[in-house]
Design brief:
By secondary structure, the protein is an all-alpha fold. 80% of the residues lie in helices and 0% in strands.
């Protein structure tokens, strides 16, 4: 079959269009992404490594770092288990209410994190629905670590499920059904068939979930109470430092979050490359 050169030229944009689009993209990325990243690291190191290190090792900063890691260490595994269970149920079984379940999984993406924090405050606050019961048993959720973990878990739980659902849908059910026909139990099918097939998609979702948990601000800001050295996470600590005009310290702590984000992007790209190789 002979190709038509006219058809090829009809689908090829002029050179000036190509370079204009490339220029717009590069300019946009430079202004929105590259310059802010450069500013953060420049300001963080402006007063030298001594000031930078002191800002990161300050007692309140270290407390915020530990609390952020604790919240992520609890929220991410919980979301991984939920996402795995939800994706498995949605892709491997047919049941009434499946579309409703998918919609509810997307809810935290549609709801503002601040609203999510307010919901938890109305539920578990001292004057909230469950507040008097918690107070009677000397338990505190809002303005304490449990509230921060709850808020972090809520805003991050869609990430693993939303990565696994399309990943598992593309694989179908043939291998699981074949294993069951050969006499494998449910757990054997999961450990020997399902999990090996989805491990890279699961890792991809966990990486994104962890990055979101580390950087969460809105919901955590509402439920934390901003108690220095106790309920401030890293993003909240940055806000306080910046509000107190401690710019070098604020940018130093912010650079830690930015470094985590860059490492996350690198890991994300490595996982994508691995998945592409497996599919290729």
């Amino acid at each position: 079959m002979v190709s038509d050169p006219q058809a090829g030229r009809a689908t090829r944009d002029p050179t000036w269009v190509k370079w204009t689009l490339i220029g717009v993209v590069v300019l946009f990325l430079t202004v929105i992404l590259i310059l802010p990243i450069a500013v953060v690291f420049t300001e963080a190191l402006r007063k030298g490594l001594g000031v930078y290190w002191a800002a990161l090792t300050q007692r309140e900063a270290w407390s915020a770092i530990k609390l952020t890691l604790l919240a992520a260490a609890i929220a991410v595994p919980l979301n991984a288990l939920f996402g795995l269970a939800a994706a498995w149920a949605i892709t491997k079984f047919d049941f009434r209410g499946k579309n409703l379940l998918i919609t509810l999984i997307d809810l935290p993406v549609a709801v503002s994190p601040v609203i999510a924090g307010m919901i938890f405050a109305l539920l578990f606050g001292l004057h909230g629905l469950l507040g008097p019961l918690l107070d009677a048993h000397d338990r505190q959720v809002i303005f304490a670590v449990p509230g921060i973990v709850l808020a972090t878990t809520f805003v991050t739980f869609p990430f693993v499920a939303r990565e696994l659902i399309p990943f598992m849908q593309s694989q179908g059910r043939d291998e699981e059904e074949a294993a069951i026909m050969l006499g494998a139990s449910g757990w054997q099918v999961f450990w020997r068939v399902t999990l090996p097939n989805i491990k890279w998609g699961l890792l991809y979702g966990i990486i994104l979930c962890n990055a979101r948990a580390m950087g969460e601000f809105g919901a955590v800001s509402v439920v934390s109470g901003h108690i220095r050295g106790q309920t401030n996470t890293v993003p909240l600590h940055v806000e306080i430092l910046y509000g107190e005009f401690q710019f070098a310290a604020a940018f130093a702590v912010a650079s830690l979050l930015l470094a985590i984000a860059l490492v996350t992007l690198l890991l994300k790209r490595l996982v994508e490359w691995r998945v592409e190789r497996l599919r290729g």
